[in-house]
User: Fold this.
Amino acid sequence: MKITFVGSSHGVPEANRKCQSIMITEKGNTYFVDMGTSAVDALRKRNIEIDTVKGIFISHMHGDHTNGLIQFIDLITWYFKTTDPVVCLPDLEAARVIDDWLTVTMNGNKKEINYKKTENGCVFDDGILKVTAIATEHCPNSYAYLIECADKRVLITGDLRNPNIDFPDAGDQMIDLVICESAHFAATEYEQVFPKYNIGKVCITHYSDRFLGSVLELVKRLNEKGIGALRASDDLEIEV
Assistant:
């Protein structure tokens, strides 16, 4: 399973970092957790066929996690017509908004999109990837996602209110990789939470400049403790 950080920025894009978007590839299939920037651009840049996208999992509806979604839905309705992913949304009102947008842009082609409401529990399982949603307190209808592939487990926290309050409980099994944010609090807050779990590696993404110092400090401390840690940048790839 390969994890690619298409966008690793916080609430706004920066010169060298686009908004939050994480791509997962496995056995010829492609999946996205959040789509804050153009997924189509990212796929074409890497020569990945658009119709390999089988699942899109949105953590919450804020624009820095969803701004690429309308473009993606637009293009698969009239151009990449064989693309038919499951699109998991925390709020299905977004599906109506997207449909209205396509109407306004006079795209006469209508296509049934496989929207699914994200709720606690397993939201997707295609035999390759199993995706479990875990509610968080960042905002109404916000979720983390536990990604399971074969014997590997990756936890993507999404945005949190504070890790001491709503760090997602992914159970007692080994978590091979935790991908967590630092846009809303100092990354060092995670130090009080991580010892409760069996974690192999940590990657900090969606971090803002004001907390960059704490991100660097956390990475340093975790590596000193033997937990592999790094901060994300756009185009970073991690094999799990």
